[in-house]
């Protein structure tokens, strides 16, 4: 019985992972855009995505126009005004009004979880505590508490 539950759990996880991969939407950089380690220009840059390059939009924040994107094996955040996606045979800027129509999932951001998954080998990773106090919704550092 225990073995059957383990197999069932693994199958459900596999289906969920493939559904999430399918949920990603193809996008394009509209200019040379900094891919950041968080949803603000204050976060360290991960790389620069060249203008016109295709990228994968993994999801976007509900109330702030930042999207979690993948490009050439890297993962990070790009400002939605610098990303376009195909919609009804034309390219549109990725903005909250278009998320449902484009099939872009709404995501959240937690610096500890995100950085643990994607940036353990980066030189800025040791600053994780500092960035954990950063209020990206209001673009400011929170006081130490």
UniProtKB/TrEMBL annotation:
Q: Which UniProt keywords apply?
A: Signal
Q: Which InterPro entries match?
A: SH3-like_bac-type
Q: Where is the signal peptide?
A: 1-23
**Ranges for the SH3b domain?**
32-84
Query: Which segments cross the bilayer?
Result: none
Gene3D superfamilies according to UniProt: SH3 Domains
For this entry, the protein name equals: SH3b domain-containing protein
């Amino acid at each position: 019985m225990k073995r059957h539950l383990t197999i069932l759990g693994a199958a459900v996880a596999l289906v969920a992972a493939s559904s999430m991969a399918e949920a990603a939407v193809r996008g394009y950089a509209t200019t040379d855009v900094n891919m950041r380690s968080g949803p603000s220009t204050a976060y360290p840059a991960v790389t620069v995505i060249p203008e016109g390059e295709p990228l994968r939009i993994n999801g976007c924040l509900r109330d702030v126009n930042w999207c979690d994107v993948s490009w050439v094996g890297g993962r990070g955040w790009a400002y939605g005004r610098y990303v376009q996606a195909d919609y009804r045979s034309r390219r549109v800027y990725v903005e909250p009004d278009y998320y449902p129509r484009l099939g872009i999932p709404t995501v959240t951001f937690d610096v500890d979880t995100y950085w643990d998954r994607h940036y353990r080998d980066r030189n800025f990773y040791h600053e994780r505590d500092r960035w954990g106090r950063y209020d990206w919704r209001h673009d400011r550092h929170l006081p130490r508490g």
